[in-house]
Amino acid sequence: MLPYPDTLLRGIGRNLFLLACLALIPSLISAAPRDQSRWDRKYATEEFLFGTQPIRFLVENVHLLPKGRALDLAMGEGRNGVYLATQGFDVVGLDISLKGLNKAHLLAKHNNVKIETRVVDLENHQLEKNTYDVVLCTYYLQRNLFDQIKNALKPGGMALIETYNIDYLRYANFSRKYLLEPNELLEIFKDFKIIRYQAYDDGKEAYSSIIAQKPKGN
After folding, report:
1. Structural domain of residue 99, as residue ranges?
2. Average pLDDT score, the chain
3. For a Cys-Cys bond, which of 20, 66, 112, 161 suits 133, CB 3.0-4.6 Å?
4. What pLDDT, in 10s, does the model give residues 119-144?
5. Residue 123, C-beta contacts closer than 8 angstroms, at least 6 positions apart
6. Residue 178: which of 144, 139, 148, 120 has the closest Cα?
7. pLDDT at 156 over 60
8. Which is nearest to 213 in space by CA: 199, 196, 168, 205?
9. 102 lies in the same domain as 22
10. Angle, to 10 degrees, between the axis of helix 79-86 and the axis of helix 98-110?
């Protein structure tokens, strides 16, 4: 016979499981400050880490985007969001790094435009629903954001996404979990209207880009 009742042992097991979960919380809480410090260090230079010019895919297709309120996710130093502001968009930029966003404001001032920014951890942030005409996310891959991006768009709004794909491993060491699989963006936005799509490889880098429009009835 067991020395303790079976129900008591089950209770102890549950308590041990809860204690194990609680033990993980400090590491989860500290992850965001570590990410923030890492990016603040990267952006702590007068040089613009990724330059001041917007990505080509955005420039070539900006005329397709519905004018209005635009959200730039993982804005960094602001090259893409500031460009949208120069094109008449009302831009909000989110990023975990205050130093990056401060540089985005400097870039905006240099271009005689204004932007709104917020320091947030995108891994623990909820986007407002049906709020934006455009959602922009470049060179930042957090797969559980895609549903939020869709919900954040107004009906008829467009998402513009660009980041490295799996072929980039030919040219650089990179964590595969942050690389798009073949046609992944097409699958993610299969319920949207695809306006533009490309899978680009110039022998030095490889990335995928998409502009997808939310159905107007949603």
Report:
1. 56-213
2. 87
3. 66
4. 999 999 999 999 999 999 999 999 99
5. 31, 32, 142
6. 139
7. yes
8. 196
9. no
10. 30
